[in-house]
What we know:
Blueprint: E1 2-6, E2 15-19, E3 22-31, E4 37-43, H1 46-54, H2 56-73, H3 81-85, H4 88-93, H5 96-103, H6 110-115, H7 120-124, H8 128-131, H9 141-155, H10 162-171, H11 193-206, H12 225-242, H13 248-268, H14 271-285, E5 292-296, E6 302-306, H15 313-324, E7 331-336, E8 341-346, E9 351-359, E10 368-375, H16 378-392, H17 407-420
Antiparallel strand pairs: 1-2, 2-3, 3-4, 5-6, 5-7, 7-8, 8-9, 9-10
Helix pairs in contact: 10-11, 10-13, 11-12, 12-13, 14-16
Amino acid sequence: MRDIVFTRASGWIPNVIREDDGLKLMLGAGADANHEPRTFTFPIGEAHLAVIQQDLARHLLLWAAVLPLCEAAGTRGPLDETAAVALLDPILLATPADVDALFRRIPWDRSRLISHGADIRLLERGQVCTAMRGATETPNEKRAQEHHATRRRAARGTVLGPLDAAILRYTGQYLHGGTVPKRLPDAVDPALLPQVMRVIATAEQACAGMRIDRDPRRGNRATDKQEWARVEAAVEAGLRRAHPELTDDAIRTVKFLMCSEVADHSSRTPLETAQETAGHRADSLGSGRKTALSFTDDKDVEKKWRRGGGRAAAAEFWEFVADRSAADNEVFTIEDEEMGEGIQLHFYADSMARITTLRKGDGGSDPEYRVEYLLVDGMGQYRNLVNAFVHGGCAALEEHGPWIPDVAEFERARRRRRGAR
């Protein structure tokens, strides 16, 4: 039989219960192997109950001291009841000076006290009792999170100025640097918001007109790493030139915001539009726009494309790549059977081959092909090469050379590039 004897407004602050004719402190902490909250209890006396009921600060200090014991219990171990009971008199019944001395010797959960209103400067001086004079039953978790973030930065030698902190609040990354950045002007002190907006305007100007497209080699959602890096470099250069006082943390969060927004805008801009524009020049260089193509991967899966189907050939091909590309599927081919020409993309080697039929097989003889190789520098060049081929065939690829006809020479070129990197 379990009866609740005393509880506070916040359900997480430990309760006092009566169980088996004895008083116990009951608290929830940690989680079991199934991620369900664990509950711990240990015995207390009537004198301890009286202090817990009357003194919120001592109640919270006891909680902060017991939490490390709960963490040590892990997902299934028992609470060290002897160690927990040993904390009762020194925290609830001792003088403030003795309590302060105890907290200098034992582990305790700083964030719990800060979230319930502890004076941070006094805590850092070791004056825990005095620090808890303004304690509140209702927690402010954001306050504790901000303090933890500040300590984390300080541990790596970073101290934010007012503008740096305002920029991180604007992007929503003050607490967690891994959070996807957004624009939160209401989170910024109105007095600092104009300065923040000047920084953002500088970044926007630095990356105006740039794109970060998808990288279908890595699936439907991945972005082009090279294009992301180019936008980052442009934004950082602009910020350091115009705002040299900013810390690395502030510059990093603005770069992340700009890259995220550029990538989002690029994903909403139809690829067909960009590809058709890029293809106009290729049309005039080669044999003309393709009317029918065959796409294949390294697993012999094939997809047909015909002009007039509503989608541009390049867009259909990259969609095919995004759906099919994998660690063991990195060779993709586009073939124009009627013209006897095609290209083969080798993503694993950052290279490509163009293949032209010199003589068709007849009378039982094998066809004769000319195969030429090209080193490719990233997804952007792959896009340009595919666009050129689907709009003008192999002839339109000539200007993208130099093409290497000899396999051995091409392999040497690959090794040289690998060594240079």
